[in-house]
Amino acid sequence: MVRMLDDRSKLLLKTLVERYIADGEPVGSRTLSRAPGLDLSPATIRNVMSDLEDLGLIASPHTSAGRIPTARGYRLFVDTMLTVRRDQIPTVTGLHGSGIAAEQPRQVLSQAAHLLSSLSQFVGVVMTPRRPSVFRHIEFLALSERRVLVILVSPDGDVQNRVIHAQAEYSQSQLQEAANFLNANYSGLTMDEVRVRLRTEVEALRGEISSLMVRAVDAGSEAMGRDDVVVAGERNLLSVSEFTHDMGHLRKMFDLFEQKTQLMRLLEVSNQAEGVRIFIGGESQVVPFEELSVVSAPYAVNGEVVGTLGVIGPQRMAYDRMIQIVDITAKLVSNALSHGGKG
Q1: How far is CA 53 from CA 46, 59, 130, 235, 294, in A?
Q2: Which CATH topology does 7-80 take?
Q3: β-sheet bridge partners, residue 310
């Protein structure tokens, strides 16, 4: 926890963060001394900046005399100093009057991702709604070192594979017994229904096999229940100066958007909260990049939260503007998908 800052330190930190976000250059004491409202001498400013640096809120890059905010500094700024003005964002009409109906949810979400990207000039991401995960058929295949391949077939023929780590070694005949039980008793049900019934109905089976079934159903629910993450604007990162100096980091970020698994985990976390959420640097423990920040919000269909959308960009972003972009887009998506039913 950062110790309580006095008003002077808060104002200086707020001014420094806003100036750095606007200009992208380390901010020195002389620049701050000319900022309206501070009315402090350069010497006093240097002392306060030294205190802020000791608290880990700002840092000096390389040999520069100026300072830049740290992830911790951005966090304090966002949580306690950010003011969002409603007149800072142009009217967003990207999902209104577009001719896209609720019966075309995939196109609504794709357009939303591109809208987020174009308004923010960063990366727009939208997690598609969770579908009821129904399976028609399941098979198990024993692999090495207690690993088991779970093969799931949906009613429309979609095949998903997941590897789970079992608590014991199973023979193929034991795995066949488990698959036969699931197929005979639960085919056609959703994974959530299967999970509930398994808790009460598999006591007659050996404990090890019932445990395997539960883990398989959990894996299957994750595999079949989520459609995808729609991503737009990855190339915008190529114009972000903080990223272009390290091509290795840039490649890792592009891998993140290609794989999408980590993005889904991050957006699932956001899905559990109301309103806009902000992850700065590596805070989410899901997107492991100190340089990236995420602003996200859930969207709903007929009042029920079904997914999340957001903007991913550098730590140095105009958070007040991003909050509005994400908030408004989430409302537009909710309205577009709710119009005329779930589509």
Answers
A1: 10, 6, 44, 34, 24
A2: Arc Repressor Mutant, subunit A (1.10.10)
A3: 125, 296
- pTM, two decimals, is 0.70
| 323 has a pLDDT exceeding 90 | yes
Percent pLDDT > 70 in the chain is: 78
Residues 265 and 255: their CA atoms lie apart, in Å, by 15
Fold of 137-225: Enolase-like; domain 1 (3.30.390)
Q: Which SS3 state, helix, strand or coil, does residue 130 take? A: strand
72-106 pLDDT, tens digit per residue, is 999 999 999 987 766 555 555 555 544 444 557 77
Domain 105-130+227-338 has CATH 3.30.450.40: yes
| Domain locations along the chain | 7-80, 105-130+227-338, 137-225
CB distance 114 to 232 below 8 Å: yes
Helix/strand/coil percentages in the chain, nearest 5: 45, 20, 35
b/e map 162-171, b = 16+ CB within 10 Å: bebebeeebe
* DSSP result, 63-96: T-SSBEE-HHHHHHHHHHT----TTSSPPP-TTS
